[in-house]
Amino acid sequence: MRAAASPPGYDLRRFLELERMTAEAFAAETEPSSTEYSTIWVAYVLAATGVLGFVFGPLVALIINYVRHDAEDAGFIATHHRWLIRTFWWSFGLYLLFLAVILASAWPILSDVLTDVIASGGNAREFSIGFDWDSLFATLGVAMAGGVGIFCIWIWNIYRILRGAYLLGDRRPAP
């Protein structure tokens, strides 16, 4: 009987050859030392403290990751160091972005108050804090969007730490 035809552009022999080469490359890689495993686990735990609101732990983890990501005997653990470095910087940048959104959302209220201050001519007796309700709703809406963004980054950070720890537990490289 004749074998079934492969889909166009699909070469089974090439796929199997690439699979074999990948397996050989992974097997040829030296097994990282127990010190490397301990170091990366400490880095994951310190990075996880950032999810709880601590700032010092993730900074120490970042330093550990920068020091150890080019170590000679790191093997596939170097991918975990890079994974945590990228997680830190993306999280940091996006947290700053959404924090800026929240702070910028206060502008409609601040502009209404400053307009009242200027209109009063500096006379404290005539000055009253007043603002337009539309400004209040705009402020709350944009601040809420920034808060949702920060929450999403928090969830993404948890995902990255858990996924990396899971891959490390299986002794597999991080993507």
Summarize the structure.
The protein is mostly helical and 175 residues long. It has one domain. The protein contains six helices and no strands.
Q: Find the structural class using helix and strand composition.
A: mainly alpha
Share in β-strands? under 5%
Radius of gyration: 26 Å
Helix content percent band: over 70%
Largest sheet, strands/sense/barrel: none
**Number of DSSP-assigned strands:** 0
Number of structural domains: 1
What is the end-to-end distance?
A: 42 Å
Average pLDDT works out at: 82
Shape: elongated
List unreliable stretches of 5+ residues.
none
User: Secondary-structure element sequence?
Assistant: HHHHHH
Could you walk me through the main structural features you see in this protein, from its secondary elements to its overall organization?
- Helix content is 71%, strand content 0%.
- It is built from six helices and no strands.
- The protein has one domain (34-169).
- With 175 residues, the protein is mainly α.
- The longest helix is centred in the C-terminal third of the chain and has 37 residues, at 133-169.
- It has helices at 12-28, 34-49, 56-68, 77-104, 107-120, 133-169.
